[in-house]
Amino acid sequence: MPSPCAVVPAIDPNVLAAYLGDDRDSIRTVLLKFRESALESEALIAAAWRCTDLVALAAGAHRLAGSADAVGAKALGAVAHGLERAGKAADRDGCRSGIDRLGRELQRALAEIPGEPG
Predict the structure, then answer these.
(1) Domain span at 107
(2) For each of the chain's 118 residues, which pLDDT tens digit applies?
(3) Residue 7 placed within a domain
(4) Structure pTM?
(5) 1 in a domain, yes or no?
(6) What are 74-80's contacts with CB under 8 Å, separation 24+?
(7) pLDDT of res. 3
(8) Is 81 within 8 Å of 101 (Cβ atoms)?
(9) In angstroms, rounded to a whole number, what is the distance separating the alpha carbons of residues 31 and 33?
(10) Which of 60, 88, 100, 106 has a CA that sits 20 to 30 A from residue 51's CA?
């Protein structure tokens, strides 16, 4: 049984391994593309929040949720899905707290991606 204090990785390596096997170069390439896409989505979400455009915020969160799920960033994906729901519901308080959690989970996921962006 895992320790209750065990740190769960931000990115589940089994998700990409299921598609790419042990091809480390391909996995690294996908993760670097995810990094770029995630940072773009974060910028879109932040801009939408500043402009109080909750429709655009929800769209950016939807984009980020899909890419996070695809690479195995499960906690980030869950937070992004919640932010998307809050944006669609015009729940400003939910968006505010979701954006805070999103930033933390995104940083955790990005810290696990090896190498520098191309």
Answers:
(1) 13-111
(2) 556 666 789 999 999 999 999 999 999 999 999 999 999 999 999 999 999 999 999 999 999 999 999 999 999 999 999 999 999 999 999 999 999 999 999 999 999 998 754 4
(3) no
(4) 0.90
(5) no
(6) 74/12, 75/8, 75/10, 75/105, 75/108, 75/109, 76/10, 76/38, 76/102, 76/105, 76/106, 76/108, 76/109, 79/105
(7) 61
(8) no
(9) 5
(10) 106
Query: Total domain count for the chain?
Result: 1
Q: What is the pLDDT of residue 117?
A: 47
Judge whether 42 lies within some domain: yes
Measured torsion, CA atoms of residues 15, 20, 21, 23, in degrees rounded to the nearest 10:
-120
Note whether residue 49 is domain-resident: yes
Read off the CATH number of the domain in which 68 is found.
1.20.120.160
